[in-house]
Structures are given as C-alpha cells and as structure tokens.
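Handover notes (outgoing to incoming on-call)

Open items:
1. Glycosyl hydrolases family 2, TIM barrel domain: sequence verified, structure written out, both below. Nothing else pending on this one.
2. Nothing else urgent.
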Amino acid sequence: MFKLSVLKQTLIFLMALVLSPFLHAQKSHHETQSLDGQWQIIFDKENNGKTQQLYKNANFLAQKNIKPITVPSVWERIEKDYEGVAIYRKAFKVDAAWQDNIVHINFDAVNYRAEVYLNDHVVGVHEGGFTPFSFRIDSMLHFDKENVITLRVVGPILLDTDKVIDGMGAMETPQWRGGITGGIWQSVRLIASKKTFIDDLYVHTNLATNETNVALEITNFDEFYSKDTVRIDIEEVTSGKIVATQKLDRSFQPGKNAVATTIKIKNPQYWSPDSPFLYKAIVTLIRDGEKSHAVSDRFGYREFTIQDKRFYLNGKETYVKAVFLEGVYPVGVATPIDLAMARKEIQLAKEAGFNMIRPWRRPPQPEWLDLADEMGVMVIGSPVLECMDLPVNTPDLPRRVNFEITETIRKDRNRPSIVMWELFNELRRPILKQMMAETAMLARDNDPSRLILDESGGWAFGAKVYLPHSRKFEHFNDVHTYPGPNMTNLWYDKFLGVGHTAQQRKALGIKGKPIGHNVKENVTSFVSELGYGSYVDYTRVNAQFAEQGNPIVPATRYHKKLGQQLEQTITTELSNVYQSPTAFYHEQQEIHALANARMIEATRANANVTGYCVHALTGGDWIMGAGILDLWRNPKEAVYEKTKAANQPRILSLRTFPRNAYVGSAIKLSVTGINDLSGLTATLHVEVTDAHGNAIWQHKKAVDYRRHVSQLMQDATDKIMRAGKYLVTATLSENGKTITQNTIEFDVFDLPTLSKNPIAIVDETGRLRQYLTDQNQAIIGFTDNLAIDVPVIVALKQNQDYRTLNQQLQRFAERGGHVIYLQFPYQRPKWNSGVLSRGYSQFLPFEVDIKASSGLWAGMSHVVAEHPIFEKLPQNQAMYGVYENVRAKMSMVGIEHDHIVTVVANDNFPDMTLMKRHYAGPGDVWTGTDITSVKLGRGEIWLNTLELIPHLSRDPVADIITNNLINYVLKRVQK
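Glycosyl hydrolases family 2, TIM barrel domain structure tokens:
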C-alpha cells in the first residue's frame, strides 16, 4: 500500500530540488517555436572567439570561414574529428503575440560547454553534453524585427592530449565513447508562458493503490503572491480519453514553489513489454481565467523490483533478457538521421527475444526513448559517466559526476521504459569508490520509485542495489564476463557456480571458480555482460557506406579500413582456405553465434541467476565485432538467429562429457530444461546420430518440465566403436507437438601411433613424460652431446628462468638438431603505464612477440591449414567446436612462419594511452601463428602456443596434434 511516508518523502525531495539548479527536464511544453534547421557555424580552431567577440552578430558575419550546419547534428559530420571551440549563429523571428509572455530557450543537449548570447547580450552558460537546459530570454527578444542567437560551444577534447580550453583538457569531461559528438546535437526550441511557469513535472505511480503521484515545480515570475488554478488531466494516449481530472487552487509565492498531489485512476492498465500502455499527464496553470502555461508528459503504470532474488515487473516474475546498445549510427554518429533506424533496432531486439536494452553509458535522445516507451522495451538508464578510469581524475570530477546523475535522472524519470538506474560501471578509482553511497542517495532523492544499481560489474566492492522507495541496499551479483568463443564444460561450470557456496558447488559437481568480481553467495545475480564477436560482412556493409554514408565520419572510415585490410589478408594469406572474404566473415559469424547461444544457455541453467545482458545489439568504434546487427541494423544472420533461439521462453541445454572422446568410450549426456513459462509434463526424446544420419543411441521418457530450471536427463551412451562426428538431438514435445529442440556435437577419434624411434624430452610440467610413458614411447633425457637425429620435445613452466637450458637447446639446434617447444615460457601482454604492451619470449635465440588472441568481445580466427600436423582433425577452417579445449589464448606475431595455424584479428586498443581507446577507433588488422618452425643453424626449433600440455590424456585433440607433430618432425629428421 502507498504509505503517507512516501508522500512526505516526495514533498521533502521536491522542496529540496526547487532550491537546486537542476530544474530543466525534457517535457512537452504547449506553446513552443522550434529553432531546429539551418544554422551557421565557425570552427574557432585557434580559440580566438572570445577576444574577437564573435558572439556579436556583426563580428560573426564579418568572418570568411562561416559554414552551414543542420541543428540538431554533431559537428563531426561536417568537420572531421574536430576538437575545440565553435561559434553557432541563427537568425529568427518571434510572433508579436508572445510580446507580453515569459519566454525561455530550451536546448535538449549541447556538447560540452555552451555559452549562450541573444542579440549581443549574455544569456547564460551550461556545462554537460547530454542533458537539457534552458534560460529565460524575453527581456532580450525583439518582437518587431529579427533576433540573432549565438553560442560559443567548447566541445569535448578526446584525442588531442596537448589541448586545454577553458581549463578542460583531454578526457576530463564525461563523454560517451561513440564519437566526438560535439555541438548542438539535440533540438532547440522557444517556450512561452504567462507569469507562472512549470519548471518540472514528475509522475510516478503506485500499483497497490492505483494512485498517480504528481509532483510539480513551479516558478511564479510575478513580484506578488498569485492565485492560480492547477488543472491536472490524465489521458489515455491511444484513445485520447480523459480518465481522471483534478483541480487545485493554489497561492504561489514569488519565485520557486512545489506542489504534490495524488490522483486515483479506476482500473488502470499496466505498462509492460507485452502491452506498453501509456498515459499522459497534462498540467495547466490558469490565472484569472487565462492559461498561463501547460506541460504534458507520458507515463505508465509499472513497477520493476526484486523479490526473493528474482526480478519482478508489475508483481509478475520476469526473467530479464537484455542487450547492449552502443548507440553508434552510420551517418548521424550519435543519433539516426531517420527514426526508422531506431525503430528497426528496437523491433529487431524484441523479435530476438530481448525484453530490455542497456544503452551504453549515455542517455539516449528523447525520440529514441519515446519509441522505447511506445514499442515496449525495458531500458536501463545511466548517466554519461565512463568507466575503467574515464573520465580522468581532476578536481572537477566529483562535481561533474553528481551533476550528470542528477540531470540525467530528472530528464527521464517519467519514462515507463526506464526501470532502473545504473550509476557506475567497473570502478577502480578511490574518489569514485568513496562516492558510491553518496551518489546512490542522490539518485534516490531524485527518483524514489526505481531500482538503483550502484555499480555494474561489482569491481569496487561488489554491486549493491536499492529497491524502490528504499534507502537500504541489498547485495547484488552483477557479473561481467567474456570467455571468448570456447564455451567449454569448465566455462559452463563457471556460469553455473554464480551464487552458490563452495559446498553447494561441490555437491552439484560444479568445477572451477565462478565468474565475476566480488560475487557473493545466495544473493540476486545478474550477468549484465556476456557475449563474443565477429566481423560484419565488410563487402556488403562498405558498399552501403559508399552509397549512403558520410566519408568523413568515423564509422565510414573504420569500416573501410578494416574491410580493405581484411580483404588483403584473406586473399594473400588464406586464399587456399576461403574462396572470398565473405566466406571468412560468415564463418566468424557462425562461431560468434554458437558462443552467444552457449553463454546464454549456461546463464539460464543457473537457477540463481535472474537475467543477462548480451553484448551487443550493434557494435561501434573499437567494439566493432560485438553486434548481432551490423551498423546499418541488418542482422548477422547466424548470430541473430542462434541468439534468438537461445532467448526463447522454453529451451533445452545439452552437454556432453567429454567433448571429444576415443573409440570405445561411452559419452555422458546431460539435458537441462529451462522454462520461463508454466510447468508441464512432456516427452523428452534424445537421439545420437552419426555423420550419415544413422541413429546409434536413443532415450525417450516422460519428464516434469518445471518452471525455471530442471534436470531432465543424465545418461550415457553405449560404447562408441567408430571414429567420426556425432550429433545429439534433444526434443521436448507435448501431445506430439514439438515445444523446443536443441542439438550439440561431439567427436570420437582413433589416436595416431607414435614412431618407435626414441625421442628426448625436457619436461618441467610432469604431464609430457607421463603421457609419452602411457603411449609406450621410448624416451631419453636431453644432454649436450645428444645425437642430432633424436628430436627433443620440451615442456617448460611459465615464469621461470631457463636461460642455461635454452642455451643448451640452442647449441643442439645450431649443429643440426630439432627442438619442439610444446610449451615455452613468455611474458604475457599487460597494461603498463596506460599502454597495452606485447608479450615476449624469454631466453630464446630469436625474438618472438606474443599477443592475446582469445577474442573477448571481438572475433579472432585461428585458421587451420591442411597439414600433416592436423591429420584426423578438421582442416582448412577456423578452430572451433572440436578444437575448443586446445585453441590458443596467446599467439606469436612478428615472426616468419609457415601458415599452419594463422591468426587473423585487429587490435582493439591501438598502441596508445588508455584514455584515447574509446575514441580512436579500432587498430590495424594483424596476423600471427600458433605453431611454426624457425631455422637455427643447421637445425630448427618448433614453437607452439596451443593449449596442448594441459590437455594431454584429457582431450584426444591435444594427443593427436602432439603425436602428429612428433611424427612429422621425426620424418624431417630422417630425411
């Protein structure tokens, strides 16, 4: 029930806020004049505008470098990557009927610092690039002739680290990472009223009582107390029907005033993604029988909260299926030039099974949020506060953080689509860590009605969440993870372990440490970042850029660069594997699709988890590969369809133990039922078929397919006596009708025998010797005088000094010997003074650079050539599926190599400081290798970064590659 204390709380925060400077939320004022359209701009590259007084009309018009610009738009659409100052100008007329009115000028957003002048007079200044502001201007307006408005705008400084303007240096201001986005990038309008003016309208609802709580902030511009009538109408947006009306007679003091009231609606319809029913609150101020001002805004009846460690919407348990929105657009940069593109992306998200969108660290434009309200998708609201050490520390940072949180919440707190506020992401800095409680309470002061998440990712202390109307936090596991493409059984278990105690994990047979930072046991858990990546079809996408794009904006340039570099790489180095670059892109997308689906399955199979967020709906800047759509909002077909399938309300998740097996093994099978709907009794049919489609094993039984998660089957096949690829198909049906179906593959192998010739080993791991002993391979120790016709197989541990040993092995190779490093020590890449370094090998006789090659949110292909080392395994393709356990996490670059395994990727972070990484775009395409040989004297050294040693005797693929490699080198020795 709605309690009096809540109403009191509303009044308290209203009275506090009328004294604050943050009074200009985005609302629909009823007497307006748009100033959108053609403006003029001077790019003040030398920052002389102040001394030359370019804000004055005559001085501006005397300049020769005036350009036309459309408002709203970002200025980088006409001036490539511009950072600095620009002066805007627009001439306009105002209807004489407004002469006795109060007139405000309202800007929805100007990035970053805006100094406003009208008819050569100072109006005011606003700092902050993503929230609205307004100024009163009626005393400066001409009603009988032309008016001229000018703005001096200091845009964000992001890449020019030497530039400081008005005390603001590079990356010191809160910014979104999708581009520079400088200038007047959202709409401008004039607003007219009489003496009483509605500064803000805040509407929040109470489902328990069907009450609409309306809070108003009103300014009386008269010098005397007034007598006004406040009329509030509640209207159904679709029908236009007025469902409630209230009139209040009030006496307003000069200056700021607050009004709070409650209106009850009979049987209101609730807002939800399935039924996005909207109401409109229309507030009219009437003085002496004449309308003074009117404002309206839409709202919805809905409540999003947490109960019993589950998300609930409108009292109904709701499993959250969210998707990131990077919010980069191919032409408009920060906004689509046509709202049809925004509508398309939201519709595609909903059709893929997502019920929530997480815009990335930037309040979306008002028109986008209008669509979210209308189309029915929940939205996570967040201020434009970067993360991972951005913006950089300055004494202004705390003030700017509080400002952005306050203005962002006040701007959008009426929107039904926004169901929670996310304040920070992946915090590391002490100043922000100590502000977490303060900012959470600041958010609560500005919005009593929503969930508040203090930090996504939980890097600082572990995340905390505040329920609606509460100032008491609850611990909350907010997990970020990017496993790469290989969702192995171990990774699957890491997802299953979230929220469980160590004892619970042991009892359930869950191996490994759970994913996430500072995760806690038995608390609400949400995997708010997961996913993989793949290249778009650059051939098709760049054709669309050539036809419709703007050649100077970042998106066009980044796509063109990567497309050209990848085409060159594929056609010169991998033409024997791929008939075209498009074939390469589509294979990457298939890998991306499988990874996304598997991560979603593993998340949903954990009953402790109440939702997830896939990264991402679209890619952008250096996050080029993460999208399930390309930048033109066209689906990557395989990624979109498999992600969509994994999002369905009822699915099955299959596992095989092991993934790869030897002939004569039985395969353990597990089928987990995942059900967001009501439970039912159904028939489960599991079938294993060989490569020819012949069934070799079946299982059929009635099962209780319960809501949430249920273990439907754990069984084992008969011993499989023939090598090959096998498909497991699980089908759940009711009365002969298929409810859901899923498949998974496993492979069965014969092991190639090793040559009977003796080999020497140096094994610091213990695994190599044991494996070769089990294979009955004759082995001897390595000595300085070893015969050169005996190859040496080496397995060394990381982070140890093998200087003397490596010098001995070097001399052996120089006199004609062959050395195979199945595992060699190297320094891994790391962050060093803000720069991403390359790793390097230690003590080898030649330079070997090491780069991370797991992939994270970007696709990285490890392409296997046709070669004896991979006999019995898939060849002329990228490593996935059967290779999931052995695929390298680190690869060798900058070394002459045979194209046995070729790694193709691009740098996510170009070689520059951390603070530039969000705006400089993707780095260059690079290639590397996981297996290669290097000539040394009369012999050769083989280097390998595949994960072979950890999986010897555990995965036949590791055994096969090891045996093939040894046999191949033995043949070379014999020649």
